[in-house]
Design a protein that fits this description.
This protein is an alpha+beta fold and 244 residues long. It has 5 helices and 12 strands. Strands 1, 2, 3, 4, 5, 6, 9, 10, 11 and 12 form a 10-stranded mixed sheet that branches. The protein has a two-stranded antiparallel sheet with strand order 7-8. One of its GO terms (biological process) is enzyme-directed rRNA pseudouridine synthesis.
């Protein structure tokens, strides 16, 4: 079944990608909120609650992922480590890499340097920079508008700032919206995917986190495999469920 904005079912344990004495990372499903939010009253389950119950101890999310985004989500196992890791995220000391399926053929590489309005204060703009690299392109025999075929790209996105919905807004800005994104994406494309593929998941995946462990100074790389709907669309569009 495609995943909508509703919280995903928790019949199975969360997939743990990495665990140490201080940190744990999961592969967050699309549609699962990180924590309780007043703007998502329909949700009854949250990653914080599910992981706490699964591990039998308190957990602290050190960063956020949109409800619609799947992939690597990192938690601290103590208040002290939570403070340390949040500071490192704020300083840009943790490298975040995302993968997304977007409309059209994107350039081989591009730096998107485009300030974004704050969602909570539209009068304020914040610097926002995203590095884009095209991983793969495809053209499929799917009619859309006046065109007999449709073109899509798999892109790697590396934000060097951490603004709310930054990747979604930046891809919309360069006219290559992320498939399944609402409200920043293309509603006609989203409808096409719903009708053609029975797919309404946003195709944005938090692929990898890389950082130095605050205790050991060792380089930690955490990579998340695609969730099921992203894998299915990789097969449908690029004839593979894996990275190129």
């Amino acid at each position: 079944m495609p995943i909508s904005n509703q919280t995903v079912a928790s019949s199975e344990p969360l997939s743990i990608l990495y665990q140490s004495a201080d940190l744990v990372a999961i592969n967050k499903p699309h549609g699962l909120l990180v924590h309780r939010s007043p703007i998502a009253s329909d949700a009854s389950e949250f990653a914080v609650q599910l992981l706490r119950d699964q591990l039998g101890q308190r957990v602290y999310p050190v960063h956020r992922l949109d409800r619609k985004t799947g992939g690597v989500l990192l938690f601290a196992l103590s208040e002290t480590m939570n403070s340390v890791m949040q500071q490192r995220f704020a300083e840009g000391a943790i490298e975040k890499t995302y993968l997304a399926i977007v409309r059209g053929y994107t350039p081989d590489e591009q730096v998107i340097d485009y300030p974004l309005r704050r969602d909570d204060n539209p009068d304020v703009y914040q610097d926002a920079v995203t590095r884009l690299r095209t991983v793969q392109r495809t053209e499929i025999p799917l009619a859309f508008g006046k065109h007999a075929t449709s073109r899509y790209s798999l892109v790697e996105l590396t934000p060097t700032t951490g603004r709310m919905h930054q990747l979604r807004k930046h891809m919309a800005h360069i006219m290559h919206p992320i498939i399944g994104d609402r409200p920043h994406g293309c509603n006609k494309q989203n409808k096409l995917f719903l009708n053609r593929f029975d797919m309404n998941t946003m195709l944005l995946h938090a692929h990898q986190l890389q950082f130095r462990d605050p205790v050991t100074s060792e380089l930690v790389t955490i990579t998340a495999p695609f969730q099921s709907e992203f894998s299915r669309m990789m097969t449908e569009l690029f004839a593979t469920s894996d990275l190129a």
